[in-house]
TrEMBL record:
Keywords: ATP-binding, Cell inner membrane, Cell membrane, Membrane, Nucleotide-binding, Transport
Lineage top rank: taxon: Bacteria
Native source organism of the sequence: Cupriavidus cauae
Keyword Cell cycle: no
Ranges for domain ABC transporter: 6-257
Protein name: ABC transporter ATP-binding protein
A GO cellular component entry from the record: plasma membrane
Length: 329
């Protein structure tokens, strides 16, 4: 079996707020292998973006803190690194792509400078070589006439081109892991598909692991190899994408599937929204976080937290589910 490049173990991230302590990520564990795409899905506030920020060492302090767990990247625990060591990994061996490139790009610097600088910094190359590589990367992400675009500023690019340039920036140092947080949400559907096709293709060709954070199950079905479903800061189900779509087991995952139009055009099944609101993380009870919205909830669900258990498969194809009603294999 391929050795995972990333192993997250019992990650617990909390924030101190005026309303109390929020456990935004609660004992979350998962692995990602080289060349694999893991999608993390869930509603807003489910903990998916905070999981990403925890891996990147970007939890704002002192309000936030990682209180427990390990984040093993290529065998090294990122939580034990100091700020300088983490900076050397971030943007180099681990790259990120955010939803809105304008908020991550410097509007006063040319695209070429923004791509070439990390190459020069991390790979210690002469400026001319780094700039040549930046043009090559713009070509790889299918920006026409890449050499002449090096001198353009971000505002001179369309939204789709900016996101392509972000992917070029992310790939600049040949990272082993890319974390893409809702990378195409702000784009129209056609451009979204082009960008995700490109990202997946490049990641596979380069053997880069990809964590795709999204609330869009259509994106998950098309691009993910495996899926981790989060609810209330907890991982509630994880499986290969095929297995999850064929046999969703957790009531929340089934609820998510029931409110998405079917890709095969079958309109015989009505779309069913999940009743209720996402949980207030300052007031979670001792039981299942989904219990107030779950039609199948029983007395036990209010008092005992269901832990993730194997319900089939093995290795990276294991199917895990955290529900008291699950059948054991
Ligand atoms: Fe529903 Fe209980 Fe399963 Fe939670 S543990 S999802 S409340 S049945």
């Amino acid at each position: 079996m391929t050795q995972p490049i990333l192993q997250v173990r019992d990650l617990t991230t909390r924030f101190r707020t005026d309303r109390g302590v929020v456990t935004a990520v609660d004992q979350v564990s998962f692995d990602v292998a080289p060349g694999e795409t893991l999608a993390i899905v869930g509603e807003s506030g489910s903990g998916k973006s905070v999981t990403a920020l925890s891996i990147l060492g970007l939890i704002p302090r002192p309000a936030g803190s990682i209180d427990a767990g390990e984040i093993l990247f290529d065998g090294q625990d990122l939580l034990k690194l100091d700020a300088d060591a983490m900076r050397a990994i971030r943007g180099n061996r681990i790259a990120m792509i955010f939803q809105e490139p304008m908020s991550s790009m410097n509007p006063a610097l040319t695209i070429g400078k923004q791509i070439a600088e990390p190459i020069q910094l991390h790979q210690k190359l002469p400026w001319k070589t780094a700039l040549g590589m930046a043009a090559e990367l713009l070509g790889q992400v299918q920006i026409p006439e890449p050499a002449s675009r090096l001198n353009a500023y971000p505002h001179q690019f369309s939204g789709g081109m900016r996101q392509r340039a972000m992917i070029a920036m992310a790939l600049a140092c040949k990272p082993q892991l890319i974390i893409a947080d809702e990378p195409t949400t702000a784009l129209d559907v056609t451009v979204q598909a082009q960008i995700l096709d490109l990202l997946k293709d490049l990641a596979q060709r380069l053997g880069t692991a990809l964590i795709l954070i999204t609330h869009d199950l259509g994106v998950v079905a098309r691009y993910a190899d495996r899926v981790a479903v989060m609810y209330g800061g907890r991982l509630v189900e994880m499986a290969s994408a095929d297995d999850l779509y064929r046999q969703p087991r957790h009531p929340y995952t089934r609820g998510l599937m029931a409110c998405v139009p079917r890709l095969d055009g079958d309109t015989s099944q009505a779309l069913v929204p999940i009743e209720g609101q996402p949980p207030d993380l300052t007031a979670l009870g001792p039981g299942c976080a989904f219990q107030p919205r779950c039609a199948l909830a029983q007395a036990q669900c209010r008092v005992t937290r269901p832990m993730l258990r194997t319900t089939g498969g093995r290795g990276l194809s294991v199917h895990l589910n955290a529900c008291h009603l699950q059948e054991t294999p």
